[in-house]
Design goal:
Elements: E1 15-16, E2 27-31, E3 33-36, E4 42-45, E5 47-53, E6 58-63, E7 68-72, E8 77-81, E9 87-92, E10 99-104, E11 110-114, E12 120-124, E13 133-136, E14 143-147, E15 151-156, E16 161-167, E17 174-179, E18 185-190, E19 195-199, E20 205-209, E21 217-222, E22 228-233, E23 237-242, E24 247-253, E25 262-267, E26 279-284, E27 289-293, E28 298-303, E29 310-315, E30 321-326, E31 331-335, H1 336-352, H2 359-367, H3 372-382, H4 385-395, H5 403-411, H6 417-425, H7 444-460, H8 470-481, H9 485-498, H10 512-525, H11 527-535, H12 540-549, H13 558-569, H14 575-586, H15 588-592, H16 597-603, H17 612-625, H18 656-674, H19 676-704, H20 710-727, H21 735-742, H22 748-767, H23 769-778, H24 780-804
Helix pairs in contact: 1-4, 5-9, 7-8, 7-9, 8-9, 10-11, 10-12, 10-14, 12-14, 14-17, 19-24, 21-24, 22-23
């Protein structure tokens, strides 16, 4: 510690502390209190106990001389209060700023101390022996439990009175007593190897546990969610007990782990493990601390300081830190994440170490560049999924700089360049040729990458050519991974195979099974919110499907989206459904204020403010606490990565008959569109044939009428003309009808001219029908040319109309 006075004006002197950023042994800070006597000799005062406050990231430690040290990890400051008196136990008061409960050795008093001013605001008396245990109830914050080996007192802090007193007898003294994390029960461990459980509300005994295998019981510990209890003692046996079923879950023989007995046990919670802690810290009889993985039943780390053995240890409520009080009196403060990383880092160090050799050989090996295989092996060591998960649990997200590499490692993408090139060579898929008409994308590069990704997915599997929500689902991944198109495709394909299971079993209809799972989970954990949805007529298609189809991109900001997908890709496939339910539960208060269907539907299309830590923590709680009968993992397959090779495996999670029928209809429409020009050619031939026949008919009729009178000729000609109009009603061969249909706007002037021409012809026919007949006979060939030109005009107009379509 380095001392640095803040100001002479301040009544409280605070000093700077420096934490080790990358400790090899996990110790970020060591406390020791050394004083110098009047004769120049130095002596070390031993520390007795300590406690953590997670809400403010503070630590309080007491020594045997009556000094109290406060460490603030946020501001990196520490200060000291003198004259407090020797203390046996410490505990921060929940939900009260800077208030500490101190159990003093003298007179067995309980003092409430302000850590900023050092003033005592309240003192409780009533114990007859040194107090060893302090515990607060989670559901009744005004209830304080203090205990000595011979008695336990439950205090009511509203009026500072005793609520309940438990007296023991010789041979059955209290080894440990505490409130369960939920606060519903009070649990005590006695010297006669029994565990007694009382109901907190009425302090009635509900259960007594007498484990026959466990002798000389010393300590008990609870998981953060309170569903499991660990019991241990001087005999080499560890028992895990279920608080839900009141039955033993597992019995572990510690001798196989080289542990002769346990003096103290405590769970080390992870930040986002939902309270189902899987790492148990065991202080063995030989004063070493062992971290036991309860899933694999193996020791993942052993802490044995060189200077001294460990006398006791304390774990912070969130598991971020823990401290060890050494037998010589020092206090080592550990960062849990650094400690859990030590085994992995040691393996990496072993890879780097070489066998003994000459200095010349070492110099040559250092100068040679590493091969690609060696680099990949070292990256695999660093990208171990267990280590990555611990990093995620500690910091809440992956580093931005290495996120793409970490996602590649988590999804185990094969880097199939040949297979990906084969999909690229197929070009843009017709389904996504005009994707820019559906979305407004200002960046041409992003649009290009989106088209390429969707086309590759559609070429890989026909299903992805007809799913309307797919562009919205993959778009955020395009924004994040567009610099590496191969990684982008393989990541999205792997996500669709694993994290979108059962999404397409009823395609193109909504995934009924998925929506039913979400509704069942919501019903189990928040029935009131589900009732609100039912009253408003809201189904899971609104509060679940909309979120899933957009991959949370509509309801979360960019940074929140990245953090969420860090956790989704680091967990099983069921986590994404838990995240959907978690979002609804965390936003419960805002949703219940909405009454109409439209308001609630719009809510799930907007980015609403959300506490991301609470959101993720709730998702982990749902993942661990959901009943197995309705848990999605019961229906999901295990993770499958893409095959490495020259081609990708087929995607089969959809009904092929439905998709093939839809694709057939789509192809038929495309075929009709592609045959439009062939139909126009057929129409042209039909028009030419009809026009030629009509001209020949008119020429024959004019020739026959040459020997008739003018009136007969005119009368017959008019009758034939009318008859021709009647027979050709609805026919597309007449020039006037074609002009009206094909040129409704552009040829309106020509249409009027044709009417005027017809009127003039009738007047001329009344004057000289013979000359008109001769002119018709002579101009028959000219009309053929004129009509051919008109047909060409019609074809040009038809081609223009096709382009417009």
């Amino acid at each position: 510690m380095e001392q640095d006075k803040r100001s002479d004006k301040d009544s409280l002197e605070k000093f700077d502390i420096k934490l080790k950023s990358r400790p090899k042994d996990g110790v970020i800070l060591q406390l020791h209190h050394t004083v110098r006597g009047s004769n120049g000799e130095t002596r070390r005062i031993r520390f007795s106990t300590g406690t953590f406050d997670d809400s403010q990231e503070k630590l309080a430690c007491a020594d045997n001389a009556g000094n109290l040290f406060i460490l603030d990890f946020t501001d990196l400051k520490f200060w000291k209060h003198t004259g407090v008196g020797p203390s046996n136990a410490l505990h921060f008061v929940p939900n009260k700023l800077d208030m500490l409960v101190v159990a003093k050795s003298k007179n067995f008093e309980i003092s409430f101390l302000d850590i900023e001013t050092g003033q005592t605001s309240l003192t409780l008396t009533g114990h007859t022996a040194p107090i060893k245990h302090i515990s607060f109830s989670n559901n009744k914050l005004n209830n304080l439990l203090t205990a000595s080996p011979v008695e336990a007192i439950l205090w009511e802090l509203r009026n500072y009175t005793k609520y309940f007193t438990l007296n023991t007898y010789l041979g059955a003294q209290i080894q440990q007593i505490m409130f369960m994390p939920g606060g519903d029960y009070l649990v005590a461990c006695f010297q006669n190897d029994t565990v007694q459980i009382w109901k907190h509300e009425n302090m009635k005994s509900v259960k007594q546990i007498i484990p026959s295998e466990l002798k000389h019981m010393k300590s008990i510990a609870f998981t953060m969610n309170g569903r499991a209890m660990a019991m241990s003692g001087l005999s080499p046996t560890l028992i895990l007990f279920s608080m839900d079923t009141w039955k033993a879950l597992k019995s572990i023989n510690l001798t196989k782990l080289n542990i002769s007995g346990a003096q103290q046990v405590a769970f080390i919670p992870q930040v986002f493990d939902g309270g189902a802690n899987k790492i148990l810290a065991i202080l063995s009889s030989d004063c070493t601390l062992n971290l036991l993985d309860l899933e694999s039943v193996s020791i993942i780390q052993t802490i044995c300081p060189e200077s001294s053995g460990i006398r006791k240890f304390v774990v912070s409520p969130s598991g971020k830190y823990f401290l060890c009080v050494l037998q010589l009196g020092e206090v080592n403060i550990y960062n849990s994440a650094h400690v859990l990383d030590i085994p992995q880092s040691a393996k990496v160090d072993n890879v780097k170490e070489e066998t003994p050799s000459t200095s010349a050989h070492r110099n040559v090996s250092q100068d040679l560049p590493l091969s690609k295989v060696e680099i990949e092996q070292k990256m695999k060591c660093c990208m171990d999924s267990a280590r990555l998960r611990r990093i995620l649990m500690q910091y809440g997200e992956y580093p931005e700089k290495f996120r793409s590499a970490i996602w590649r490692s988590l999804l185990n993408t094969p880097k199939n360049k040949v297979a990906y090139s084969a999909l690229i060579d197929k070009g843009i898929h017709p389904s996504y040729k005009d994707i820019e008409k559906q979305f407004t994308i200002h960046s041409s590069a992003t649009l290009k990458n989106l088209k390429r990704l969707l086309s590759c997915l559609a070429h890989w599997c026909p299903l992805f050519a007809v799913m309307k929500f797919l562009p919205e689902f993959v778009f955020p991944f395009v924004k994040v991974l567009q610099k590496d198109p191969l990684l982008l495709f393989e990541c999205v394909a792997t996500i669709l195979m694993n994290y979108c299971q059962l999404w397409f079993e009823y395609a193109p209809f909504p995934p009924i099974s998925i929506l039913a799972m979400v509704e069942n989970i919501l019903a189990e954990h928040d029935q009131h919110l589900l009732n609100h949805y039912c009253e408003a007529g809201i189904t899971s298609q609104t509060y679940a499907l909309k979120i899933l189809e957009t991959a949370f991109s509509e309801v979360l900001s960019c940074s929140e989206w990245l953090i969420l997908w860090d956790h989704i890709l680091s967990n099983e496939a069921a986590f994404i459904l838990m995240a959907v339910v978690s979002y609804n539960i965390v936003q419960r208060n805002a949703i219940k204020r909405l009454t109409t269907h439209e308001q609630i539907e719009n809510f799930f299309h907007l980015q609403n403010p959300i506490d991301k830590k609470l959101f993720l923590k709730k998702a982990y709680v749902l993942l661990n606490d959901t009943d197995e009968d309705i848990h999605p993992r019961k229906f999901f397959n295990s993770f499958i990565s893409l095959d490495k090779g020259d081609c990708y495996q087929q995607f089969t999670g959809y009904p092929k008959a439905t998709i093939c029928l839809k694709l057939a209809k789509k192809e038929k429409k495309q075929e009709v569109k592609s045959n439009k020009y062939t139909l126009r050619e057929l129409t042209k031939k039909t028009q030419e044939k009809e026009i030629s026949e009509r001209l020949q008919l008119e020429a024959d009729s004019d020739a026959k009428s040459m020997n008739s009178s003018y009136e007969e000729c005119d009368h017959k000609h008019l009758n034939k003309t009318r008859k021709g109009h009647q027979n050709s009603k609805g026919d597309l061969c007449t020039k006037e009808f074609l002009e009206n249909v094909m040129f409704p706007k552009h040829n309106s002037k020509n249409h009027e001219d044709s009417k005027c021409t017809k009127k003039d012809k009738d007047d001329n026919m009344n004057k000289s029908s013979i000359s008109k007949t001769k002119k018709r006979v002579q101009s028959a060939s000219k009309k053929n040319d004129t009509l051919e030109k008109e047909v060409k005009k019609l074809l040009v107009a038809a081609s223009n109309s096709d382009v417009t379509e």
